[in-house]
Amino acid sequence: MCGASDPYGEAMTERPTEPRIAPVDLAADDVDPELAQLLSSVLTSDGTPLNVFGTLGQHPKLLKRFNLLAGFLLNKGILPPREREVVILRIGWNAQAKYEFGQHTVIGKRVGLTDTEIAALTKAPDAHAWSSDDAALIALCDELAEDDCVSDETWARLAQRWSDAELVELLVVAGMYRLVSGFLNSAGVQLENGVPGFPD
User: For a Cys-Cys bond, which of 11, 20, 76, 113 suits 188, CB 3.0-4.6 Å?
Assistant: First the structure.
């Protein structure tokens, strides 16, 4: 079931509890060799492609191009990794995308986010003593989620720190992970064992 909810309220919107689209089974006899090669190069859990990639593998040409953009943003972009993860986690929370939030909790911790900060990204912006720069990133995410446009006030705050190229990348990261969150939610992509979901 999908629908709207207050992201800071007690109840979360229900999401599919089983995959609506099954990840590609690499053990199947009829797996295309090119797809198997493509999936062999993605992040894995115990040797199996992460469910997001396995599910996208149902459309191999799209997966190939998806990996180019997502891989660029995660590995070759110009944004500092910590700030990039603030944006991705807040986008994932606003979309109530447990898979997105869980996978990027792992990445966020790796690049310097604390458990307290990650938990605070699930709360109203004033529930944590964010720096001015972090607060502006959170506002960007919230405004895009609410109205698909960053306000003049938030833009002015962002522009005090970020170059035009960085602002472009911030918007593309936010948009990319809004797309990914909607895909994950709607396709029913399930978390791998051992990956956290939302904080308690």
Answer: 20
